[in-house]
Amino acid sequence: MLRSQNRYLIPFILLALIALIGVFFPTSTTANEPNPAYPVEAGDVAWLLSASGLVLLMTPGLAFFYGGMVRYKNLISTLIQNFISLGIVSLVWLLVGFSLAFGRDWGGLIGNPGDFFMFKEVGLAVRPEFATKVPFALFAMFQLKFAIITPALITGGVAERVRFSSLMLFIVLFSICIYAPLAHWTWHPSGFLRQWGVLDFAGGTVVHISAGFAALAGAMFLGQRRTVSNIHTPTNIPYVVIGTGLLWFGWFGFNAGSSLAADGLAITAFVNTNFASATAMLTWVMLDGVTGRKRSVVGACVGAVVGLVAITPAAGYVNVGQSVFIGFVAPIISYFAVQYKTKTGIDDTLDVFPCHGLGGIVGMILTAVFAKDVGLVYGHTNTFYFHLLALFIVSMFTFGGSYLLFMLTDYVLPMRVSPIQEIEGLDLTQHGETATDWKERINGGH
């Protein structure tokens, strides 16, 4: 295990080396020259720039969503556990992540790790195999936003007990070993899942199923929190509402932007995204009512997010009526999964697996049922069978691989804070900060 004084010295030196490489590494000039054979469409560029910004906004939105749900003493730590992904994954993507996901194919499993090192050959020219009317650099940046939010989602499963330095190492390992291969399988033209005809319009499999199973692995590896009951009271419900609003807003870029063009497909995805989420929110609220619970604000927010998750893989492949059906079914499954989870002893703090993992699974299966022209309702069974096979492979890979990465991280840097630190709270013990001045809270501002 690394000594505490070395936890940040080594990463600091590595960061300095990356900065020096950035100065001296020879970037390609031809990559920055548009290719006349593949002209850039200004409207598509404008839309994808906007969509990329919307997807980036989802990560701070998720920070508010998660932060409002944890106990007060862990609010700041939960915010930064999400927000730090913006920095870590960006540099991983620049160095090797984008190459592994979208570099020259190696057997349908992974990309050549050196293809786009420091964004070599990633510039203003169009690469038609990935996006036909926008520069390759813009495609790379849009894809980066998906890579950023995926490990951020995982933090909800291990919140309130994970060591910050260890989590940062895990994010690096997960991005390289789990996310990049899965993105290659699903979205690279030669990836084996894509070759099978597996459909994932905007990340139901790559983002949400992978994050859900990784969060489940993390919750099982770390074990239960100390001094916490089965009744979990959110510390700041307005934060949860703000986070949900930002997520819903950003999700229009997440799904509609995945058309990679300002076209009818983007509009279809936009429409489906809204109505699936609206239906899911109302379904969760009604479930609270029919099960004898008060209709909670947090429940409405969670339901909306489950609907967004479930429609993600299907957004460009189904019609609006089918999106409403998806938005109705997914929260029912997630709702009762959340209730069941409290009886299992698995401490997935913020229900990442029941909501994101199962939401993504429902969306993946129903995509194979409803997908235009190739779905089960159109008499085609191949897509459905390949989706089930892909679900099995992805589930085993993401859960097993993530569990091994948690073990590896724990060997290098202990993953869990000490009992005293956990009881005192991660805000003070990990970051030396609190959400507000505690003296002000005690003294009423005097």
* Biggest β-sheet description: 2 strands, antiparallel
What is the rounded distance between the termini?
45 Å
- Report the radius of gyration as a whole number of Å: 21 Å
CATH superfamily: Ammonium transporter AmtB like domains
Helical content band: 55-70%
Please give the number of β-strands. Answer: 2
SSE topology string: HHHEEHHHHHHHHHHHHH
What name is given to the CATH topology? Ammonium transporter fold
Structural class: mainly alpha
Number of helices: 16
How many domains, in number, for the residues?
1
Mean pLDDT: 93
In short:
This protein has 446 residues and is an all-alpha fold. It has helices at residues 9-24, 42-67, 75-102, 136-158, 164-187, 192-196, 204-222, 237-256, 264-290, 297-311, 320-341, 352-370, 382-412, 419-424, 426-431, 438-443; strands at residues 105-106, 110-111.
Give an overview of the whole structure.
- There is one protein chain.
- By secondary structure, this protein is mainly α.
- The chain has one domain: Ammonium transporter fold, CATH 1.10.3430.10.
- It contains 16 helices and two strands.
- The protein has a two-stranded antiparallel ribbon with strand order 1-2.
- Strand 1 (105-106) and strand 2 (110-111) form a beta hairpin.
- The longest helix is centred in the C-terminal third of the chain and has 31 residues, at 382-412.
- The radius of gyration is 21 Å and the shape is globular.
- The N and C termini lie far apart (45 Å).
